[in-house]
Amino acid sequence: MKNYKILLIIFLVIVVAGIIFFYSTQNNTPSPNLPQTNQTNTTPTTPKKAENSVTSNNETIKVLPGQSNIVLADGESRILFGNSGSEMSVPDVVFGKNYSLNDIHKINYLPIRKELSFYSKGYLITLKNLGCNKETRFTDVPEIWVTDCSVNVSSKKAEAPALQIKSVVKEIGTNSLFKSAISNEPLVYVTAPRLSLMSWTTGQLKGKIGLESGSMTSYSTDTSWDMSFVTAYGIDTIRYSAEEIFNKQGKKINIGPLQVDSEITSFNCRVIYKGTDGGETQQCDDIVVKLTLAGGNGVIKLVNYSE
User: Fold this and answer.
1) How far apart are CA 157 and CA 16, in angstroms?
2) Looking at the structure, do residues 172 and 293 belong to the same domain, yes or no?
3) Starting from the edge strand earliest in sequence, which strands make up the sheet with 92-94, in order?
4) Taking Cα atoms as reference points, which of 223, 224, 244, 227 lies closest to residue 235?
5) pLDDT in tens, 122-160
6) Which of 2, 5, 183, 242 has a Cα-to-Cα distance from 170 of 20 to 30 A?
7) Which of 223, 225, 256 is nearest to 238 (CA)?
8) DSSP letters of 267-281?
């Protein structure tokens, strides 16, 4: 009888110990709804911009700064919006997967400010900016930022035609911004910022030539002046230094079959300061640039462009 009681006590102890062990293991099982203290936390990676493709022949798309990556009907060109930036920022059409930013002779993008049409891989694609929404953000001062833009995209199957380049001679003034097409068939759209020169034959800058371009408010001896050419055959730039302009140096670029010659033909200088050493400071304005277009026959890419 005594042995029976001992065995019963041992049995009860084993049962209680088993119950305690069971519940203790259950309480140590990680809950799917709670943070796991014994797991390694990883820093989430920033997702890449997802590509979205145009799915119809005519649709209006909302383009978001820093987010949108819209592949067009040709499967290569796309709409990107790098940064909302200032209130004048707009999306770009990029003729390729990424921007080409480091070579003024290999520019592969255009801002979609109004409307543009281009041929690519058997398609005629037209992009029209319908307007952008803006908001005021406060940093040190209130700033207006673009939050999104609506772009109408239309595309249809079409092969690019070939056009004969017509000889054109055009003189442009630079006392204010020049921004216009100097040829429409084929397209040659020129942007030339305001330009002024300064020549020193006295003082610390003696022998130097400086320029003031666009919105600049002072003259610089190491800033260049660029004329951009958006053409039916591609995009390119003619770049001048201040000394090259002052010396009336000619420049030439070739864009596909199109040849563009640039010549500084004239400017007027006036003395604004006389030094005690007999030298002078002169300011030169009314700078005239003569552009000559020539070339043969070539298949076009860009049909029209406006800002």
Assistant:
1) 81
2) yes
3) 52-53, 69-71, 78-80, 92-94, 109-111
4) 227
5) 999 999 999 999 999 887 888 899 999 999 999 999 999
6) 242
7) 225
8) EEEEEEEE-TTS-EE
Average pLDDT, the chain: 86
Give the residue among 85, 171, 74, 173 at the shortest CA–CA distance from 135: 85
Tokens encoding 87: 């209130």
Measured from the Cβ of residue 140, the count of other Cβ atoms closer than 10 Å reads 5
The β-bridge relationship of strands 209-213 and 142-157 is: unpaired
Asked if residue 167 and residue 116 are part of one domain, the reply reads no
**Burial profile 49-88: b = 16 or more Cβ within 10 angstroms, e = fewer:** eeeeebeeeeeebebbbeebbbebbbeebbbbbeebeeee
Asked if 146 and 72 sit in the same domain, the reply is yes
pLDDT, residue 54, reads: 82
Alpha helices in the chain (DSSP H): 2-27, 242-246
In a shared domain, residues 215 and 237: yes
pLDDT band with cut points at 50, 70 and 90 for residue 198: very high
The yes-or-no verdict on residue 177 having pLDDT over 70 is yes
pLDDT of residue 28: 38
> Do 77 and 177 belong to one domain?
no
Residue 40 lies in a domain: no
Q: For residues 31 and 79, what is the distance between their CA atoms, to the nearest angstrom?
A: 46
Q: What is the mean pLDDT of the segment spanning 280-300? A: 97
| Bridging pattern class, strands 168-173 and 162-164 | unpaired
pLDDT surpassing 50 at residue 41:
no
The count of domains in the chain is: 2
Length of the chain: 307
